[in-house]
């Protein structure tokens, strides 16, 4: 029986485990295989911007698509068109934030899901259109989202405002033309074609249809310069449109890496070779064995790990939830094709299972985080970015002679001022009021120090009412 058959995991994990076992069986010594498996952490590098464009055809019914695409492709910007009523209550996504704009009808609206590592600024908003300024290297660019309903003309006057700027506007324009691989033209497509010819702007579009209802390419990008930009259709999702993955030559800055380890494979492989290392204990002295075994553990850790750019880090989404989401989409497609009552019941049942499991998973994460925060001073790891030391700039002190900036002169001036301020008061002997005040002060200073009697609240209230009667 094959050892990999005992392993519980995905097909890709089985293939990786099978390759590791094959490498183990073909090497002559542990030292050689440890040397081969050892990896070095990559140096920091620049990462290019990745975007997904998707007409979700009402987000409330396609949340599972968003979960799958984020887990598999981890884009830095996710542009959604046709968001619908969910535009007012967008779901929270770990490591991302939303920018949205409502549409002219219940099926419109655009939204951008942007990774926390990107700095943006909203520059323009109107119905079914959103434009942000993205701060990247070597200079900022404008990224937009647009949705043009089928009955509306192409908004030439809107795009005319960005002709002389570095802009990249993506969306569903419902514009068809043979120039971007559609079989026929429509009015919006002809208007866009003429506008592109008159302005010199270009398009970013895939080579496959983005609509499932036809062979048309209606989800694309419009830009001042499309050089280096590439768009590919993703065969995923349950909407009437395919998602489009857009790869760019634009750098988002220096990028570091984190280690992602498959602990299941590591544990299973150690169980497989346990007896071999157990036999080595009796054949070698302890120093040699521990040195050999330590080197093997370190190299095996490298072998089952990979280094991934840190901006693609998201807390791992459980495989069972990904499988439930895919099965949910399959049942949804089956019902939409057949419209049978049986398929509808199966789809609704799976939908409830998926949403319940997802809610339980998110609730568990919240409870774990709350439990961690409540221990010791762990809360400061979350609120520390909010609190930071602040000290106003000190430019000097203002005197009758002007602003003093010399540190020693400032210290001498303040010392002279407070010495005079806190010294014993001086008085004029020739003034009767001063002399009497000094005499009264000396009499008071010679009185014994007795504690003052406490006054009750009732006495205060009684005297207050008495004073009110005297002064009506």
From TrEMBL:
<protein>
    <recommendedName>
        <fullName>Endonuclease/exonuclease/phosphatase domain-containing protein</fullName>
    </recommendedName>
</protein>
<dbReference type="Pfam" id="PF14529">
    <property type="entry name" value="Exo_endo_phos_2"/>
</dbReference>
<feature type="domain" description="Endonuclease/exonuclease/phosphatase">
    <location>
        <begin position="143"/>
        <end position="244"/>
    </location>
</feature>
<dbReference type="InterPro" id="IPR005135">
    <property type="entry name" value="Endo/exonuclease/phosphatase"/>
</dbReference>
<dbReference type="GO" id="GO:0003824">
    <property type="term" value="F:catalytic activity"/>
</dbReference>
<dbReference type="InterPro" id="IPR036691">
    <property type="entry name" value="Endo/exonu/phosph_ase_sf"/>
</dbReference>
């Amino acid at each position: 029986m094959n050892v990999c058959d005992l392993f519980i995991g995905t097909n890709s994990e089985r293939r990786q485990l099978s390759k590791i076992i094959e490498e183990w069986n073909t090497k002559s010594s542990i030292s050689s295989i440890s040397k081969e498996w050892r990896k070095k952490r990559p140096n920091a590098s620049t990462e290019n911007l990745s975007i997904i464009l998707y007409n979700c055809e009402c987000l409330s019914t396609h949340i599972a698509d968003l979960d799958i695409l984020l887990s598999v492709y981890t884009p830095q910007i996710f542009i959604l068109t046709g968001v619908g009523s969910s535009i007012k209550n967008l779901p929270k996504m770990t490591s991302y934030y939303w920018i949205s704009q409502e549409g002219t009808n219940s099926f419109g609206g655009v939204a951008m899901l942007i990774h926390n590592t990107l700095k943006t600024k909203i520059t323009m908003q109107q119905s079914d259109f959103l434009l942000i300024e993205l701060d990247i290297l070597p200079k900022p660019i404008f990224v937009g989202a647009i949705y043009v309903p089928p009955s509306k003309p192409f908004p030439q006057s809107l795009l005319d405002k960005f002709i002389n700027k570095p802009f990249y506007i993506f969306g569903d324009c419902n514009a068809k033309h043979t120039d971007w691989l559609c079989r026929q033209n429509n009015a919006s497509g002809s208007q866009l074609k003429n506008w592109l010819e008159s302005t010199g702007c270009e398009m970013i579009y895939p080579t496959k249809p983005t609509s499932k209802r036809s062979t048309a390419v209606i989800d694309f990008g419009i830009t001042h310069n499309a050089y280096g930009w590439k768009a590919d259709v993703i065969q995923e999702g349950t909407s009437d449109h395919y998602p489009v993955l857009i790869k760019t030559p634009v750098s988002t800055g220096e990028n570091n890496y984190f280690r992602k380890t498959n602990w299941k494979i590591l544990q299973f492989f150690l169980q497989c070779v346990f007896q071999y290392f157990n036999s080595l204990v009796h054949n070698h002295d302890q120093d040699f064995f521990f040195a050999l075994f330590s080197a093997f553990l370190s190299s095996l850790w490298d072998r089952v790990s990979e280094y991934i750019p840190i901006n693609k880090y998201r807390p791992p989404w459980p495989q069972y939830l990904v499988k439930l989401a895919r099965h949910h989409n399959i049942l949804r497609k089956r019902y939409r094709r057949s419209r049978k009552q049986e398929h509808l019941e199966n789809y609704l049942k799976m939908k409830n299972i998926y949403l319940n499991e997802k809610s339980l998973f998110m609730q568990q994460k919240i409870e774990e985080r709350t439990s961690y925060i409540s221990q010791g001073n762990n809360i400061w790891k979350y609120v520390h970015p909010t609190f930071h030391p602040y000290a106003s700039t000190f430019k000097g002190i203002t005197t009758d002679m002007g602003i003093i900036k010399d540190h020693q002169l400032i210290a001498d001036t303040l010392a002279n001022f407070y010495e005079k301020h806190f010294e014993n008061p001086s008085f004029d002997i020739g003034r009767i009021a001063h002399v009497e005040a000094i005499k009264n002060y000396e009499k008071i200073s010679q009185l014994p120090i007795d504690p003052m009697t406490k006054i009750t609240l009732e006495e205060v209230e009684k005297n207050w009412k008495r004073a009110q009667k005297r002064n009506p």
